[in-house]
Amino acid sequence: EAKAAGRNTHWMFEAKAHARTAARSSLALDMKEAIRRGDFFLVYQPIIDVTTGSVVSFEALMRWRHPEHGLISPGEFIAVAEETGLIVPLGAWALKEACREAVYWPEPLCVSVNVSTVQFRGGLEEAVIAALASSGLAAQRLKLEVTESLLAQNPEQAVAVLHRLRAIDVHIALDDFGTGYSSMSYLRRFPFHLLKIDRAFIRDIADPDAAAIVRAMVGIGERLGMGIIAEGVETAEQLELVRREGCKQVQGYLFSKPLPAVEARAFARSGRAQKASAARERNDRNPPP
Ligand code: C2E
Ligand code: MG
Ligand code: MG
Ligand code: MG
């Protein structure tokens, strides 16, 4: 009986795996069509400098409006796009779109774009240069977010591309820091401009051990000359604690969820107004002689 049940489970597993494969390949087919039709779009989440209270950058995050399945998040389609290689045209589109949008924000606001390891083997440098050229965005207003897996897979080639991008003034952030394998060794392979501490550490920051780890990450990043961003700050308590551990930039639902482009534009402009009024307040308190 147990054997029969085992066979049954096995059969069900295969059926499920098959259904999953089928779903994936139909998703991949849909994706080609969706790129052509323009069903992908970007939302933008502000990154705040806590020392001034102003927005410094927005992270562009991809969304897919599927005609039947509705809104699909990148957690569901990025892996498929990577497996099929479709991330190359999709990623090039995202770079172009994000740069085109950032032109509408007051300077010196930046845009951060996530790039997949697969794009490094698919002409990333050319895609970046094309996006900057077609939008007219200054290179120093574009940041790329990469993960540790990039440096694990083909470090020499990846590092060479990163250095060339750095040379044209594009800043590079190490995303999801602390979640990959052997994080520390990657910090020596490339001089990242920014380190993004993964949400997992921020979520648990009320725990003194998690707080100690965040403090250590901030210390290492600063000693290496990198800016630090805390990802996924959701509560005022978490904000207080990440500030205490020395994080100067934060991103998370406490400030804003990722916003549609029109709302991000408004946020970008008010972010500047906020900063201006803060400066006025300071002047009011210390009137110039
Ligand atoms: P990521 O680059 O680490 O982006 C941060 C993710 O955390 C985003 O999820 C964002 O919506 C979410 N988030 C931000 N603040 C909070 C918070 O306070 N609480 C919680 N619970 N979540 C928060 P999203 O948009 O679903 O993206 C997931 C991942 O998909 C990204 O992680 C990134 O790795 C990937 N991704 C998104 N867009 C792109 C893209 O254009 N290209 C590539 N290659 N990957 C992308
Ligand atoms: Mg990111
Ligand atoms: Mg991240
Ligand atoms: Mg992440």
Task: Describe the structure in your own words.
The protein is 55% helix and 20% strand. The protein has helices at 2-37, 74-84, 87-102, 117-120, 124-135, 148-153, 155-167, 183-187, 199-203, 208-223, 236-244, 261-285, and strands spanning 40-49, 54-66, 70-72, 110-114, 142-146, 171-177, 194-197, 227-231, 249-251, 259-260. The protein has an eight-stranded mixed beta barrel with strand order 1-2-4-5-6-7-8-9, surrounded by five helices. The protein has 289 residues and is of the alpha/beta class. The protein has twelve helices and ten strands. The model is unreliable at 283-289 (pLDDT under 50). One magnesium ion is lined by residues 59, 114, 145, 175.
In short:
The protein is an alpha/beta fold and 289 residues long. It has twelve helices and ten strands.
**What's the rounded overall pLDDT mean?**
89
Radius of gyration: 21 Å
Count of DSSP helices? Answer: 12
Sheet with most strands: 8 strands, mixed, barrel
- Distinct small molecules bound, one entry per kind: ligand C2E, magnesium ion
Top keywords for this entry?
PAS domain S-box-containing protein/diguanylate cyclase (GGDEF) domain-containing protein, alpha/beta, 289 residues, binds magnesium ion, eight-stranded mixed barrel, disordered C terminus, binds ligand C2E
